[in-house]
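We treat protein structure as text, and this decision shapes the records that our systems exchange. We quote a single record here, exactly as it is kept in our systems:
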Amino acid sequence: MKTSTRWLMAAALGLSGGYVHAAPMPNVYDDGNRWLITAYNDSSPTHAQMATQGICFLPYAVVGTHVRGMWYSDTFPDWNGVYSQEGDQVFMHGDYAMDVGHDGIMFEIETSSRNNQGGGHWTEWRENGAYGKTIVFANAKLSRVGKCTSFTPTDALKLQIAPRVIRTGLPAVNPLDLDQLPIPGIELAPQ
């Protein structure tokens, strides 16, 4: 739905007595829904760079003061989840590896960057029956890089992303694994 259509719907609802919040601008979807996220190991004295992955944000619904929708990765198989944005703050959670691996990502869109960058934190863990096995606490840098070709949750589920492989030939275990080989035709420029 175009921004002007959303605004007209919100205005019509507002005239009927209920107050509807407008979607925050900038948001993760309207000006290009494909972003690259790069992790930097927070425990490393040099904040060593880890992997970069592509994320596609799907259309949102306005929920109170938030916009909410689903997201998926177009570079790592079976990695997807839900996002919620309020103002310039974005909150994401998701799963990968048949829901065994988990991610929590929080970042802020840097409005002084012409709305095309964000910075925050990325945590990844797996279940272990006790407190969870933390894979990493990382800083995250995000860059808006364009538009994804898939625009509905159904389309996203149909994507068949081949398992990622690292330079040694072994499969990547999680989205943060170092030295993942490039995917032909998919942009993962260094940050």
Notes: The beta strands are 34-41, 49-57, 61-63, 66-73, 80-86, 89-96, 101-109, 117-126, 133-146. The radius of gyration is 17 Å.
